[in-house]
Amino acid sequence: MDFDDFQPLLARAQSHAAHFIDALPERFVGARAGREEMMVALDAPLRDAGEPGEAVLDLLAASAPRGAQACAAPRYFGFVIGGTLPVALASDWLVSTWDQNAGIHVISPLAAAVEEIAARWLLELLDLPRESGVGFVTGCQMAHFTCLAAARHGVLRRVGWDVEADGLMGAPRIHVVASAEAHVTVDVALRYLGMGTRSLVRVESDEQGRMRLEHLRDVVASLDGPVIVCAQAGNVNTGAFDPLRGIIQAARERGAWVHVDGAFGLWARAAAGTRPLADGIDLADSWATDAHKWLNVPYDSGVAIVRNAEDHRAAMTVSAAYLVQTRGAERDAVDWVPEFSRRARGIPVYAALRTLGRDGVADMVERCCAHARRFAARLGAAPGVRVLNDVVLNQVLVRFGEDDERTRSVVSGVQQEGTCWASGTTWHGMAAMRISVSNWATTEEDVDRSVEAMLHVHRELAARAATSTT
């Protein structure tokens, strides 16, 4: 291989990518193949001499229409997965082309400057304290890890314990308070940080998954020692927001650190129509979010934000004799994230924000929420269909036939039919379809086509059930 190989291979990859993107609006949304077919297509003995790069690209591209879900398609409503803005995808290609290790400034002044600017823009857009530390991580899992590491440092520093030097053995026990509906990534972060899930104290939640403020007050008043409270902006099932201002006030009275899981809900701050949902969120101590959700940049892209930048930096930074770290205003990303070597994932964030501007981000958020309300109105009006949640953001929970088996069958049938793709969940003991509208490309027509497909599957199942009982 030599440098002459780049151009034909990149041109071939671009052609395959263009075909994949062109097919997104109308293709079968789910994956048609499972492990067995993919293994048959892709598995082979590793050859001594290797294979031509063109053939490898062709093989991968041929496998994608059947083995890859169309997660970036306008009728993909599974989990909480955003699409990919054209400029975000294009800039991500440049990131791979430049192949910069964005860990320290001296390796890539370009990546460091772009991430410094993107961090500032994010704080402005989300109206969070401008002095906050910002780290670009893989996703909300590592954003929680980063923020809770800073929280661990901060609450132990206040009682005179240096956790980075002395570890947790012998340290005052930290109590972590979270809602009964907190996302599992908070639990996992506690495991990674050595605090363990038994440090968690659960607070009751209401029918929409919001933390009960009165119970929180009782819980924090009963605890001795350092406390971290984890609140939620956007329940992963309902989209509901915890009463953030009240939670933060109660936590402050106790001297607790408040961390907010805003994986997708933090973006509500960017739009006037949804901003009131996040009232008081700027008073917290740390925030975790995903850019690959509502900012619609490619995976993987999460953001960790910590009000006290010194706590953030102290929890993350490393040094070594061979590193050339900055002594001035330059940004070393290794000071703000757990990773040492890392791709310059802040560049697609910069590109998306610069292209969209404030109004573009706000419009994307508000359009997705309007589409979610349209889903709820049309499905909720159909016989035998019930919407289980108050649709305040972009999440819709739907139940069919007041029956778990019927609901799961509708979810499975919709996935097999292929017009759209939505995932299933269990909400307060009931099976439900979970519809998450997170894609810039989704239109009202996409919503209406998806509703018709869902109701068609529902009616067919109802007709079969009626026939079988006669």
Automatic annotation (TrEMBL):
N6-(pyridoxal phosphate)lysine: residues bearing it: K293
SUPFAM superfamilies, A to Z: PLP-dependent transferases
Protein name: Aspartate aminotransferase family protein
Annotated Pfam families: Pyridoxal_deC
Homology family: Belongs to the group II decarboxylase family.
Gene3D superfamilies: Aspartate Aminotransferase, domain 1 (3.90.1150.10), Type I PLP-dependent aspartate aminotransferase-like (Major domain) (3.40.640.10)
Cofactor(s) listed in the protein's UniProt record: pyridoxal 5'-phosphate
Signal peptide start and end residues: none
GO terms of molecular function: carboxy-lyase activity; pyridoxal phosphate binding; transaminase activity
Keywords: Aminotransferase, Decarboxylase, Lyase, Pyridoxal phosphate, Transferase
Swiss-Prot/TrEMBL GO biological process terms: carboxylic acid metabolic process
Domain of life: Bacteria
